[in-house]
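1st attempt posting a full record on here, be nice pls
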Amino acid sequence: MKSHFSIPVAIFSLTLLLSSCAGGPNKAGMGAASGAAGGAIIGQAIGHNTEATLIGAAVGTMLGYIVGNEMDKYDKEQLNHVYERGVSGQSNSWRNPDNGNQYRVTPRPAYSDPVTSRPCRQAEIVAVIDGKSERTYTTACRDRHGNWQLKN
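the predicted structure (as tokens):
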């Protein structure tokens, strides 16, 4: 007997679990939860299997946590600047003067999203938070107001 596992139910359950583990409504928990949900959806769309969904959820969780918790307004402005004006293949680094977190972002060339026709860029982000280095890969696209928005 073959079991049919509902991806939307799994995404909802994972989001609920991550939100409850976060200890209340904080930026880290919300970022991780939304990142997990978005990553799971993208993983399922690309891989069409449970393994791809779980990998997408894991990557989305990490990215959501970093952006939701550790990146404050200053860091988000710096990241936006890299997406806007960063030279492809050239790393841009900064240290947050308030919390000491360090970031190194290396953008790739811009391209047009095939669905929305909006400009997008991929980038590698290396974050050093509390002495621990985390590496992730992101994609940001311009919204209708011209601001760069990270895709989950």
